[in-house]
Design goal:
74% helix, mainly alpha, 187 residues, Four Helix Bundle (Hemerythrin (Met), subunit A)
Amino acid sequence: MGYKWLSWTTPNQITSLRIFLVPVLMALLYYDQPWGNTVALLVFIFAGFTDYVDGNLARFRNEVTNLGRLLDPIADKMLVTASLVMLVESGHAGAVPTILLLMREFAVSALRQVAALDGVALSSVRGAKWKTTLQMLATGTLIMSVNPMGVPLEPLGRWMLWAATLVTVWTGMGYFRPYFPERFRKT
């Protein structure tokens, strides 16, 4: 047997960098200062960019690995949820949409584990990229809630967070429909 699935490819290293940036981002958001939020936004944007790079690089170089399939969604969830929880703590993000996002992520992760035990692989649903994009845009906007140049970013970010939450819950249902088709049949 062995640990072939632990391939330490460049895309997996980039994904790991995204995970290591999460505590840095959390520390910057903890202080909730304009300079810290600006640096936090730059870290968040860079980390989000690594999400784009690692997947494309893995496909381009034919280095898609099981480790990458495991780490990539974990890194995405860590980046967004840690940022949102810190933003809730500082009063810049709403607790209700953040909790709904977390509930969906836990539910889909649990469903994937149960499905895997049944030998069923649940692939990403339509709209999953939109979900991630909206979450990242909302989170980035809320990080800059200090309203540079008088632009009211916090209300915009809160609105975007609710939009991301609606898409997130909707796509979450898309994972449950194929696994429990009898529950979702139209009558």
